[in-house]
Write a structure and sequence with these properties.
The complex is a heterotrimer of chains A (315), B (676) and C (174).
Chain A: H1 2-34, H2 44-53, E1 57-60, H3 65-84, H4 100-119, H5 124-155, H6 160-169, H7 171-174, H8 177-193, H9 212-215, H10 221-246, H11 257-284, H12 293-313
Chain B: H1 2-22, H2 26-54, E1 58-62, E2 72-76, H3 78-101, H4 112-131, H5 135-153, H6 162-188, H7 195-201, H8 207-225, H9 234-240, H10 243-268, H11 274-296, H12 301-328, H13 332-367, H14 378-381, H15 383-396, H16 403-416, H17 424-427, H18 430-456, H19 463-466, H20 473-491, H21 493-504, E3 523-525, E4 530-532, H22 534-554, E5 561-564, H23 582-592, H24 594-597, E6 600-607, E7 615-623, H25 627-649, H26 655-675
Antiparallel strand pairs in B: 1-2, 3-4, 6-7
Helix pairs in contact in B: 1-2, 1-4, 2-3, 2-4, 3-4, 3-10, 3-13, 3-20, 3-21, 4-5, 4-10, 5-6, 5-10, 6-8, 6-9, 8-10, 9-10, 9-12, 10-12, 10-13, 11-12, 11-18, 12-13, 12-16, 12-18, 13-15, 13-16, 13-20, 13-21, 15-18, 15-20, 16-20
Chain C: H1 2-11, E1 27-28, H2 34-40, E2 44-50, H3 56-64, E3 76-78, E4 87-91, E5 94-95, H4 96-108, E6 114-118, H5 120-124, E7 134-136, E8 146-148, H6 155-166
Parallel strand pairs in C: 2-3, 2-4, 4-6, 6-8
Antiparallel strand pairs in C: 1-8, 5-7
Classes of the chains: A mainly alpha (315), B mainly alpha (676), C alpha/beta (174).
Chain lengths: 315, 676, 174
């Protein structure tokens, strides 16, 4: 039984790694369709990864060892997060290794090194991206913390496995206003943290409007592949959090093969639905000016605060 | 055993001071001075550890030594012992580092003799503060600590602004002393000053008196700790002091403010109403947020770190505040969690802030500047310093698996327990505190991306940075010890947390929480049953860092690497002027928080006399005056100056007039004495 | 908001199928390495370099990413940095000022990489031939794999050129 748990952990990491490019590709494909284009097939990101791993790396002569180690740290920290987030089964064998705060700060570890790597080659664009990314990350932080607070309030814990199992046991909590508000708040933060519209445009070619892209302009080859994969993985992680923490149904609570199969399908369906929402949102909204982003995140903070307050009042 | 360690500690510090007094120049002299401090701090550390582990307080009373008010009374209980360990953790590396760092003073820029004497006496006074067991001893040692550190701050008195910084420090710390004096006089209530007596008589004080004592103590100790709005001396004094002294003052000395507050509020007064905790929590939140916001705008590396001390003291106070709130509601396990978070952050801050100040000192040593805009590219020229500074930056940004995360996690967990509080008006402020704490840590990460990225990465921005050199071995060893401490404290919360639980056991009726926190490789927060294990996370990260490249090699990815020019959209050359600066890095946040900063801008363009389409030079300057300087200290200083001008009138310089003043006062006193 | 999505649904996919190879237009200069074709065939990132064109070609290139020509359906997309690119799409004769930047862009692009020169000017310098500001055709500065003639070539031709370099020409249908 214990062994099965650890095997499932590894299986989940592999599943996340495999799903992540597909999710990003699916969003892109859907967006292309919404632009009345044929678009690249959803599996296009896999080809991109294969290609990037096959290319050489060109590195700036100003860059230091930090530039070379950063992609590995970003990738490793993101994978570590996938060990903690219940995707198909809850609670996970390694649930006690970290809680939601650990998840958030591990992701911040990746962002931290990405921003430093952006500064390392000494280009203006890299510095600009680093500055903006850290600004957005910092302002998004309070909302995340409060959303966690809201979740922990009803579950009595910040550990993800416990939150999910508590919610499955108590459906009324899942559909409470506090939860719905927290979901919306976290959804806005997801847009900001994963560099989607209206905060950052993942498809932009104009350096001056970039946030995430600007930091990785100097990366190429395998390093770029790792960073891109990690950012797709981050999108998958945030989607999984949104779906499994707020709509936990379908997730397996035992290691029963049938339940696990259902859980995998449920996960894919949930991710696809969220991907669809993102695609529709991105078709509809325009990118915000950078200095309007704090207003958006401020609004999400207020939503999260309302979520906590209402959970508390209704407790 | 303990008495031996105690005597070794005293003797070693004394030896260090004595050697310094005799001269203490040259490599041998400097090393002997440092050896005194290292042995003293080591003995102190061991002394504290023994007391913590055995749980047996150490007592020594020497009433004959100072035959007033109970004389010198020394007692080391686990709480004091913990702070003695913190002193050791900060002092050993700082002293080793100082042996190399002070070489620069051999040319007579500052008095090595004064520095060496004061350095050892400062450590001694700090150690004795934790040992003090009556009011007299405590205040004496407290003042000794302030005076010696004042002399340390003005070591480089020939530099511009150092004396001014010293004046700020002296003024603030003595204002604090005055408040403490008042607090202790009220607490003694006409009785003796032994802490044991105070503890037993505190219950008989009226609530108003207790409240007054608490507020006075909070402000008094707060001025030492550097909470907002009493933090103004930190950003002035820390940059002025030699770097290993800054490391000690910021890493260790300000923590004694935390110690004093815990001693008075929790131990002597035995806790109080919940608004005490709310006040501490509120001050903590304000300090954390304002500290980091002003740090973001600083481009003086050491001043930036000083503002971060304000931030981290704020985080510690958030932990203490949460603890006090829970304590007043008798939620003892949660209270212990809050205090443990605060204390854990105390030792963590001592390690990473000490490390960062030492790193900043190395940079200053190598480039001769504290201005980040003139650094850059140091990671290639000083790789060790860069690595250590990076560890410190990650730790202070609360990134797992380093130590800042472990303690901030505990503080978060204690706050998350806040909804168990019976009083809804306080329970509902807790979410705001959670949000602000999260914002603080996010901004801290942004700030340290700036601090490390601008100072150490990319191309050098000045000739000095271009020719920087790695610092000598002693300085690197000093930094390495602290970097290892950061890692160790981060990986071992499962060992640290129960120890802290033991330290707190019994204070103000706190139960022994050691059984509540499990001793496997993870940390459980008792109330929420949350659980993390930084150790396993670190192991996982490490495995993945090895595994990913291995898998990549196995999958035969292209491993070619070519070094070329930086891509700059095809432009021909790259100069440091094209790089992002610290100012531009912080610009988005300056805009976001413009309401707070209220920056003043000045733009002057020098046109060519013939045509305004040809610009000869553009000069842009922007200044930010900190909020409390603007609304509190500037008016206060003006008021003091105005009063001084008035007072000057009665100083006419005539001897007859002065004699008349004496006579008048004498008569008034006589009348007063007759009256009462 | 409903109006927008109603419009989207009513319009449907407007991408036109790409006609088969008209080999005479595209000139493969160097035989493109088969391994490179295999690697880049399914995912190609392009960095556009204007080495001094009149911007006529740029206008046509812009059409590639639009809904009608939709280069993305072949896995071809434009990127902001040559570090991310696999192919340089170069237009115009090389002007003196753009010679070094063009070479730098080529150096900044990681191997394996392709170069497609678009427009008549890229090969012959067109009307700019002999100008003091022009140093010559693209292949004087960097090695070119495919020339796409035309003044300007239409988007479909450019797309065919790119696909020819990748050896991914559609057979009869898309």
């Amino acid at each position: 039984m214990v062994i099965t748990g650890y095997v499932l952990e590894i299986a989940q990491v592999i599943l996340a790694l495999l799903l992540a490019p597909g999710l990003a590709g699916f969003v892109r494909w859907l967006k292309a369709r919404l632009q009345n284009r044929r678009g690249a097939p959803p599996w296009q990101p896999y080809f991109e990864l294969r290609k990037l791993f096959g290319k050489e790396v060109v590195m700036s002569n100003n860059a230091s060892w930090l530039f070379r180690i950063a992609p590995y740290i970003i990738f490793a920290s993101t994978i570590t997060v996938t060990l903690l987030v219940p995707m198909i089964v809850a609670p996970l064998a390694l649930d006690g290794m970290g809680d939601l705060l650990m998840v958030v700060y591990l992701l911040l570890l990746g962002t931290f090194f990405l921003a430093l790597a952006g500064l390392d080659p000494g280009t203006a664009f890299g510095g600009m991206g680093a500055s903006r990314e850290m600004t957005v990350a910092a302002i998004a932080e309070p909302t995340i913390a409060l959303a966690i607070f809201g979740l922990a309030l009803s579950a009595g814990s910040t550990n993800l496995g416990r939150i999910v199992t508590q919610e499955l046991a108590n459906t009324a909590v899942t559909l409470s206003p506090g939860h719905i508000l927290a979901f919306v708040a976290l959804f806005i933060v997801t847009l900001a943290e994963t560099g989607r519209l209206p905060v950052d445009n993942p498809a932009t070619h104009l350096e001056l409007t970039m946030i995430h892209e600007a930091m990785i302009l100097e990366y190429s080859g395998r390093y770029l592949a790792l960073i891109e994969w990690a950012s797709w993985l981050k999108l998958t992680i945030f989607f999984t959090l949104l779906s499994n923490l707020f709509v936990p149904w379908g997730i397996a609570t035992t290691f029963d093969p049938a339940a696990l199969a259902v859980a995998v399908i449920a996960l894919i369906v949930k991710l696809a639905v969220l991907g669809g929402i993102i695609a529709v949102v991105e078709t509809r909204v325009a990118k915000l000016r950078l200095f309007r982003v704090p207003e958006l995140l401020g609004a999400s903070f207020v939503l999260a605060l309302l979520a906590v307050t209402s959970s508390f009042v209704l407790k | 055993m303990t008495i031996v360690l105690f005597l070794v500690m005293i003797a070693a510090y004394g030896f260090g001071a004595f050697v310094a007094l005799l001269g203490g120049r040259g490599p041998i002299g400097r090393w002997l001075v440092a050896a005194g401090a290292v042995i003293g701090a080591g003995a102190g550390c061991a002394f504290g550890a023994v007391v913590i582990i055995s749980g047996q307080p150490f007592t020594l009373s020497i009433p004959e030594l100072l035959p007033i008010a109970g004389g010198l009374a020394l007692r080391l209980d686990p709480l004091g012992a913990f702070f003695l360990v913190v002193i050791g953790v900060g002092a050993i590396p700082a002293a080793i580092y100082g042996a190399g760092y002070t070489k620069a003073y051999e040319n007579g820029r500052a008095s090595l003799r004064l520095l060496g004497v004061m350095f050892n006496l400062f450590l001694l006074a700090m150690s004795l503060v934790t040992l003090a067991d009556n009011v007299l001893t405590f205040l004496l040692m407290w003042e000794g600590m302030s005076l010696t550190s004042y002399f340390l701050v003005i070591t480089e008195s020939s530099e511009d602004g150092t004396l001014r910084a010293g004046n700020w420090y002296a003024a603030m710390t003595h204002a604090g002393l005055a408040l403490l004096l008042a607090a202790f006089v009220l607490l003694m209530n006409g009785g003796a000053g032994a802490f044991a007596d105070l503890r037993s008589s505190a219950g008989t004080l009226s609530p108003e008196a207790r409240n007054l004592i608490f507020v006075l103590a909070l402000l008094g100790f707060g001025s030492k700790a550097g909470i907002v709005p009493l933090h103004v001396w930190l950003p002035r004094a820390h940059p002025a002091a030699p770097s290993h002294v800054s490391a000690l003052m910021s890493g260790v000395m300000i923590k004694l403010g935390v110690y004093g507050l815990l001693r008075v509020a929790l131990d002597l007064l035995g806790g109080g109403p919940s608004w005490w905790g709310a006040l501490v929590l509120g001050l903590g939140v304000a300090s954390a947020l304002l500290g980091v916001l002003y740090a973001l705008m600083e481009h003086d590396l050491k001043r930036l770190l000083a503002y971060h001390s304000v931030e981290n003291i704020g985080i510690i106070f958030i932990g203490l505040g949460a603890g006090l709130i829970f304590h007043s509601s008798h939620l003892m396990t949660l209270a212990a969690l809050g205090f443990i978070g605060g204390l854990y952050h105390t030792i963590n801050h001592a390690s990473f802030k000490g490390l960062l100040f030492l790193g900043a000192g190395s940079v200053l040593h190598a480039t001769g500047t504290r201005n980040m805009e003139e650094m850059g590219g140091l990671i290639k020229r000083m790789p060790w310093t860069a690595l250590f500074f990076l560890v410190g930056s990650a730790a202070i940004s609360a990134l797992p698996p380093l130590n800042g995360f472990a303690s901030e996690w505990l503080v978060f967990q204690s706050l998350l327990g806040g909804l168990n509080l019976p009083a809804p008006e306080i329970a509902l402020t807790i979410p705001l505190a959670v949000g602000m704490l999260a914002l603080t840590s996010g901004l801290a990460a942004a700030c340290f991306v700036k601090a490390f990225g601008i100072s150490f990465l990319a191309i050098p921005r000045s000739h000095e940075a271009e020719n920087a050199h790695e610092s000598p071995l002693s300085m690197r060893v000093g930094m390495m010890i602290l970097a290892l401490a950061c890692v160790a404290l981060g990986l071992a919360p499962f060992a640290v947390v129960p120890v802290l639980g033991g330290v707190l056991a019994g204070l103000g009726g706190l139960p022994d929480t050691r059984p509540v926190f499990t001793l496997d490789l993870s940390v459980h927060a008792p109330a929420g049953f949350a659980q993390i294990s930084p150790t396993w996370i670190a192991l996982g990260l490490l495995i993945l860092l090895v595994l990913v490249p291995l898998v990549m090699r196995f999958m035969r990815v292209n491993r070619k690497l070519r070094v070329g020019d930086t891509w700059g959209c095809g432009r021909i050359g790259q100069t440091p002027r094209m790089e992002y600066t610290a100012t531009s890095f912080a610009e988005p946040l300056r805009r976001v928080f413009a309401e707070l900063y209220r920056p003043t801008k000045e733009l002057s363009i020098d046109f060519h006399p013939e045509s305004k389409y040809f610009v000869k030079s553009i000069k842009y300057s922007s200044r930010i005056t900190p909020l409390f300087d603007r609304v509190l200290y500037d008016p206060l200083l003006r008021l003091v100056q105005r009063i001084s001008r008035q007072v000057r009138r009665i100083q006419a310089g005539s001897l007859h007039l002065y004699l008349m003043y004496v006579a008048v006062i004498l008569i008034l006193l006589l009348i007063a004495a007759r009256w009462f | 908001m409903p109006a927008l999505f109603k419009k989207i649904l009513q319009t449907g996919i407007v991408t036109e199928p790409l006609g088969p190879d008209e080999a005479e237009i595209i000139q493969l200069v160097a035989q493109v390495d088969r391994k490179v074709q295999q690697l880049l065939g399914r995912a190609l990132a392009i960095r556009e370099v204007d080495a001094g064109s009149c911007n006529g070609c740029e206008l046509e290139i812009t059409g590639l990413t639009g809904p009608v020509y939709d280069s993305e359906r072949f896995g071809i997309h434009f990127v902001a940095s040559p570090r991310h690119a696999d192919m340089l799409l170069v237009t115009g004769p090389v002007t003196r000022n753009m010679e070094v930047p063009l070479r730098k862009t080529y150096e900044a692009t990681p191997d394996p990489k392709l170069v497609v020169a678009v427009g008549d000017c890229a090969k012959t310098c067109g009307v700019f031939k002999g100008s003091y500001a022009v140093i010559g055709s693209i292949d004087k500065v960097i090695p070119v794999d495919v020339f796409v003639p035309g003044c300007p070539p239409e988007p479909a031709d450019i797309l065919r050129g790119i696909l020819a370099a990748l050896d991914r020409m559609p057979t009869k249908r898309t």
